[in-house]
Amino acid sequence: MEFNKITRGANRAIEHEATVFEILDAGFMCHLSFIFNNTPQIVATAYGRDGHILYLHGSAKNWHLNEIIKQDEICISVTYLDGIVLARSLFDTGVNYRSVVLHGKAVLVTEEAERLHALEVFTNQVMPGRWQEVPVGNAQQLKGTMVVKFEIEKASCKLRNEGPKGDEHLTNIVWSGHIPLQQITLTPIADSKFETQPLSESVKNYIKKHSSLEK
Ligand SMILES: Cc1cc2nc3c(=O)[nH]c(=O)nc-3n(C[C@H](O)[C@H](O)[C@H](O)COP(=O)(O)OP(=O)(O)OC[C@H]3O[C@@H](n4cnc5c(N)ncnc54)[C@H](O)[C@@H]3O)c2cc1C
């Protein structure tokens, strides 16, 4: 993996592939951007990572997926807001975050075995183990689904994970510090269309992993 040079705040730059992967594996939502008719476009979508590849999927008529496969290069970003940093001055106030920006080419996946592999990777990134619990869908749904693979060619990565900095010399008296932020699960709500079933393993595991604060 090649790394893009970070200019501003370069002290927060991490040129470490494992850290990029760790951030990508912390969730499944990205923003992908590309140029269409000289106009910048950006859209939120989900992904599943397999090595240096991010798999994307959508309807075969999906506009952005059909556009990105025509482009030489697209850009994908993933960001987590981890906290609000409140210093003794507003100038030194900021946020804790993990952020990755990726560049590469998006290619249509046509081979059926890889399409299924991609959907498995994608599903298990969203909810590990769910692929084993429910069927994919019928042949028509599969036919109407487009799978795209994005190979990471260049990456950049920035992290901040600490309290206020730069205000050490200030003498004003006020609370300062940082407020960690975390996304957690609340009580799951069973589908009212069906008789309620016990939580499946994937759901139980997900809740266990994401329900409590400060792991
Ligand atoms: C967390 C998250 C995960 C998602 N995961 C997937 C996924 O895995 N696969 C998938 O196909 N779709 C996903 N979506 C929906 C996705 O954002 C698009 O809305 C959808 O893919 C349709 O894309 P399109 O290019 O065909 O839309 P079009 O309707 O053709 O797009 C035309 C224009 O509509 C606007 N637009 C489109 N989508 C959005 C949006 N989400 N918010 C605001 N404006 C929008 C933009 O201006 C865009 O240029 C996800 C959305 C979110 C928020």
Task: Give a quick rundown of the structure.
This protein is an alpha+beta fold and 215 residues long.
Task: Set down the secondary structure blueprint.
Layout: E1 2-3, H1 17-25, E2 29-36, E3 39-46, E4 48-50, E5 53-59, H2 63-68, E6 74-86, E7 94-108, H3 112-126, H4 139-143, E8 145-160, E9 177-180, H5 201-210
The protein binds flavin-adenine dinucleotide (FAD).
What this model shows, in words?
The chain has 215 residues and is an alpha+beta fold. It contains five helices and nine strands; from the N terminus they run βαββββαββααββα. Strands 1, 2, 3, 4, 5, 6, 7, 8 and 9 form a nine-stranded mixed sheet that branches. The longest helix has 15 residues. It starts with a strand and ends in a 5-residue tail after the last helix. The site of flavin-adenine dinucleotide has 11 residues, from β3, β5 and α2.
Provide the descriptors you would attach to this structure in a database record.
single chain, 215 residues, alpha+beta, nine-stranded mixed β-sheet, binds flavin-adenine dinucleotide
Spatial gap, N to C terminus: 30 Å
Determine the structural class based on helices, strands and strand pairing: alpha+beta
Strand % is 35-45%
The SSE order reads EHEEEEHEEHHEEH
User: What is the oligomeric state here?
Assistant: single chain
**CA-based gyration radius:** 20 Å
What ligand species are in this complex?
A: flavin-adenine dinucleotide
Unreliable residue runs: none
Apparent shape? globular
Task: Tell me the major beta sheet.
Answer: 9 strands, mixed
Number of helices: 5
